[in-house]
Amino acid sequence: STCIRASQLLSHLPQRPAWHYQIRNARRCGAVLAVDGREIWLVHNHLLDHEPNFECVDRDWAIRTILGVGPDFHYEVIARDDWIGRRLVADRFRDRRVFICGDAAHLWLPYAGYGMNAGIADAADLSWLIAGTLNGWASTGILDAYEAERRPITEQVSHFAMHIALKNIEQRQKTPIEIEWPGPTGEIARARVGKEAHDLNVGQFCCGGLNFGYFYNDSPIIAYDGEPHPSYTMREFTPSTVPGCRAPHLWLRDGRSLYDALGGDYTLLRFDPARPVTRLVEAAACRRVPLKTLDVDAPDGSMLYSHKLTLVRPDQHVAWRGNEEPAEPLDLIDLARGHMLKRVA
After folding, report:
1. Which helix (H) or strand (E) holds 259?
2. Could you write out the DSSP letters of every residue in 265-288?
3. Is the pLDDT reported for residue 206 higher than 60?
4. Buried b (16+ CB within 10 A) or exposed e, 119-143
5. How far is the C-alpha of 73 from the C-alpha of 71, rounded, in Å?
6. Which end of the chain has fewer CB atoms within 10 angstroms, the N or the C?
7. CA distance 77 to 80
8. Does an H or E element contain 332, and which?
9. What is the predicted pLDDT for the residue at 343?
10. Quick check: helix, strand or coil at residue 193?
11. At what angle do helices 183-205 and 144-173 cross, to 10 degrees?
12. pTM of the entire structure?
C-alpha cells in the first residue's frame, strides 16, 4: 500500500469522483481510495500468487498501471505500508483484570470498516459492564459476559470478511485481457467483470445485517425464553425482540428516535401503560440497578415488539421480555447484574 500526493489525478477521472475505486486488468489489479478528496490517495497493489514478496514488483510501475497513467504523470510518495492480510481472533478477551478489544482482540482484512465497527461494539459492551461494576450495582460476575458475548460475534465477522477477500482474489485472478480491448468484445468483458465486482462488493458497503442483525446467544446475563434468534446475512436482517437481539428501532409519535429516548442504563419499555411494573421497578431499586421505565407511544410498536414489556440494556440489546412482570423480579434483576448464572422465565 502506498499513500501518494497526486493533485492531477482528479482531472484524469473519467466520471464524477468517488471514494473507492477497484482497478481490474490482466497485468495489475489494485484499489484506489480518496483520502482528502483532492490530492491524497491510498493505492493498494494486490500481489499475484507467483510474487513472493513486496520488493519483487516495481512499485512505480504498479502504481502507474493501477492509476492508468503514463511516465509524465507526477506523484509524490507520502508513506508506504505493506502488509499481509490475515484472519486472527484472540483465544481470550480477558485475563483477570485485563480486557482487550478492537484490533488487540481481532484482525482481518480491512473490508467496509468491519474491524472498526466490531471494535466500537466491543468497547460499547465492555464499557457499560465495567461502569456497572465500578458504580456498585453490578456483581463482578457481569464481566464474564464480555468474552461470552463479543468473541463469538467477532469470530463470525472475521469469516465474513475473509470470505469476501477470497472471493475478490478469485475474481481478480480471472480478469480477462479483453477487459482493455476497444469495441464490442471489450465492452462485454467490462460489463461482465463490473457486474461481478458490484454483486460481490455492494454487500460489504450495505451491510445492515452484519451491523444490526447480530445477537448474543449464550450470555450469562440475558434471560432467554426459548425462541430462536432470526438468521441474518451480511445485508439483510429481521428486527426482533428475542432476548440477545438489538432492540428494534422505532420512531416515537413525538418524532424522537426510540434509541434517543432510552436511559443511560437499563430501560424497561412498556407498550401498555396499564401494565403493572411496580414489583420489577422495586426489585431494581432494591439492588440499586439504574432502571428507567419508558411508556412507548409509536405507530409501529405492536408490529415490531411482540411483548408488552421489554428490558433493554445500555448497549440496546434485549435482556428480557414478557407480557407480565416475572414471577420473581429479584431473580431477573440479579441475572441482569451478573449475580446469578441461571435463566429466568
Report:
1. helix 258-261
2. SEEEEES-TTS--HHHHHHHHHTT
3. yes
4. bebbebbbebbeebbeeebbbebbb
5. 6
6. C
7. 8
8. helix 329-336
9. 46
10. helix
11. 180
12. 0.86
What is the pLDDT, as a whole number, of residue 256?
95
* Cβ atoms of residues 145 and 129 within 8 Å: yes
Burial of 250 (0-12, 13-18, 19+ CB in 10 A): buried
- Strand, coil or helix: 206: coil
Residue 234 pLDDT > 90, yes or no? no
Q: Which three three-digit cell numbers place residue 283?
A: 426489585
Kindly list the distances between the CA atom of residue 313 and the CA atoms of 94, 153, 179, 263, in Å, as whole numbers in the listed order: 21, 18, 52, 9
Rounded distance, CA 287 to CA 294, Å?
20
**What is the phi-psi region of residue 226: left when phi exceeds 0, alpha when psi lies from -120 to 50, beta otherwise?**
left
Arithmetic mean of pLDDT over the chain: 92
Using the structure block, give the residue that is written with the C-alpha cell 465495567.
130
Q: Hey, CA dihedral for 75, 81, 86, 88, is it positive or negative?
A: negative
110: CB partners within 8 A, 6+ apart: none
Among 32-36, 48-52, 166-170, 186-190, which stretch is predicted with the lowest mean pLDDT? 48-52
